[in-house]
Amino acid sequence: MTTISENSTAPAAPEPAVATGLIGFVPVGIARALTLGGGILSVASCFTAWTWTARFPGDLTFYGSPGGLQMQVLVTGLLTTLFALSSYGVKGTRWLTPAGADAALKLAALANFAIAWFTVGAISITLGGPVNLEPGGAIVALASLLALLGALALPFERPKVLPVDPEDTGWDQFKHRAGNGWDSFKAAFATGPVRRLPSMHSSVEILIITGILAVALGVFTYGIGTEYDELFLGFLITAGLGFAAVNKSGLMQQAAQLTKKHQNLSIAGAFTAAALFPFTQTDDQYATLGVYILIFATVALGLNIVVGLAGLLDLGYVAFLGVGAYAAALVSGAPTSPFGVHLPFWAAILVGAGASLVFGVLIGAPTLRLRGDYLAIVTLGFGEIFRIAVMNTDGTSGPDITNGSNGIASIPNLNILGFDFGAEHVIAGFTIGRFANYFFLMLLIMAVVVLVFRRSGNSRIGRAWVAIREDETAALAMGINGFRVKLIAFALGASLAGLAGTVQAHVTYTVTPEQYLFAGPIPPNSAFLLAAVVLGGMGTMSGPLVGASLLFLIPNKLQFMGEYQLLAFGVALILLMRFRPEGMIANRRNQLEFHEKDETPATLAKAGA
User: Fold this and answer.
1) For 242-289, how does the pLDDT look when each residue is reduced to its tens digit (9 = 90+)?
2) Which of 27, 246, 298, 401 places its Cα 20 to 30 Å from the Cα of 371?
3) φ/ψ (deg, to 5) at 12
């Protein structure tokens, strides 16, 4: 008789991991209902009065008509409600979350909570306490809080973490627990793979792209037209967290798939949407910001060739913008110009771009054999030498060319084929002012720069730039003429900056040395230009354009912060570089390099895309 003995000390099979939420005491069903109910209640509260007096900007005293910050709470509340319905699997809403609903729902609820409590706090501070809130203000505060608590209680699969070593010091144990907590927090917002787009007719895909561009135009127009400080700060909160929620839902990745499939059409549509911006304005006030943003973005895209594609750290790039502006101003008929020459615009623009090209070659030829920090120091010196040189060519310290610190003033408006850019014009019943005229001209120049960037980035010379950027020694060993390739990048980037500088001289009426500093509170300057390229995404076409738009608009709107403006701006950049080091729109290589331990993204942008 055979006896089979059992080992009672054998380890039992590990129990399956139980998915729990960041807030574990709320049941899943109640948490999801809280989130949905809080979203619906937030939307409904936007149609009630939040304060009794119109002294708070936006006049939130009306019933049935949301205004001011209420519109932003309405958007985040709708986003929370729709994502909550999608998490229930309601028919007709699943397409909203192709990467899963819960992570997007948490960020949408966070956005709703942040903007609602910001508004309630602003009302209390401005009017002297929460006693000035009407019932609608209290309702939106409570509803957004309940929605956030419910969203944070939604279950997620927690990552496996190593236990704390009891022999470690107290500080090491604290760091270990903090690291485990941070890993769990990140896992709460993790998403699954994005579902592929279903096959659709090309006309439907083009219609969707049109809708995306219309939304982008609407968001930009709303942001640039914010009339008071609280509204713009609320816009930053809503746009930042709202886009993060949409990105987590997977809609951004699917939109990227569509625009990549119809790339040329998407670019043409983007320029068409931008051209419609002046027609959305009732006066020239915000067209002024628009044309300055285009100038800044064009120069940033030129710097992207030097830094993003060729990997050359240029800290004096704004000097090439100044060379183009000064060269054009000297030959455009300004009364303070010592030359007394008034060339037509096509000739002045060639002079500006050509002068920057020559300076790019003259500076690059003796210095581009340097690498890294040494090249950065040389370019920084060139930027300062240019500024000091134009300061001293005033007829006293040097030859009378640039009129010294007074600059070249009274630069006349452009007149191309009888079209006076300084006068108002009526187009299709819309009155187009001076800055709108220059906006359209700058849009055409940006189209040229985008074309140059795309063609050069996808060419043989563009691939040589990328090879030099990644490993110059290996590129030289493979037969690439590193010096010639880098000089071409340097000269091309300089000429594109000079192209933008030509228009800048006519837009600002005056060019002075103080406009071309290495760093300052208001762009364009070399530090902001470099930040725009890094922030937007080096090596991509749309990244620097988005980065430049944000870096020009935000400092302009945050002037009420005074001396703390640069501090807040610096903290924001540090946080962004910590959590999104590859930039907002990253290319394939940077995305993989900075997220080696993460899952490979479903949709990656390539250089020039």
Assistant:
1) 998 998 888 888 888 888 888 888 888 888 888 888 887 776 777 888
2) 298
3) -75, 155
Q: Is 191 exposed, middle or buried (0-12, 13-18, 19+ CB in 10 A)?
A: buried
Task: Assess contact for 339 and 333: CB atoms under 8 A.
Answer: no
pLDDT digit string (tens) for 53-106? 888 888 888 888 888 899 999 999 999 999 999 988 888 888 888 888 888 999
535: its two tokens: 């922030």
The secondary structure of residue 305, as a DSSP letter, is I
Q: Read off the tokens for 76.
A: 């985040």
DSSP state of 528: H
| Closest to 491 (Cα-Cα) out of 337, 388, 359 | 359
CA atoms within 13 A on the CB side of 513: 18
Please report how many Cα atoms fall inside a 13 Å half-sphere around the Cα of residue 93, on the Cβ side: 16
Q: How far apart are CA 575 and CA 170, in angstroms?
A: 28
- Show the DSSP H helices in 276-371 as ranges: 285-304, 318-330, 345-367
- pTM over the 0.85 mark: no
For 608, list phi and psi in degrees, rounded to 5: 90, -5
CA geometry: angle 66, 70, 73, nearest 5 deg: 130
At residue 596's C-alpha, the angle toward residues 592 and 598, to 5°, is 100
Q: What is the DSSP string of 160-188?
A: P-PPPPTTS-HHHHHHHHHHHHHHHHHHH
Residue 600 zone, left/alpha/beta (φ > 0; ψ -120 to 50; rest): beta
CB 468 within 8 A of CB 309: no
- Whether 569 and 575 have beta carbons less than 8 Å apart is answered as no
Q: How does DSSP assign 31-45, residue by residue?
A: HHHHHHHHHHHHHHH
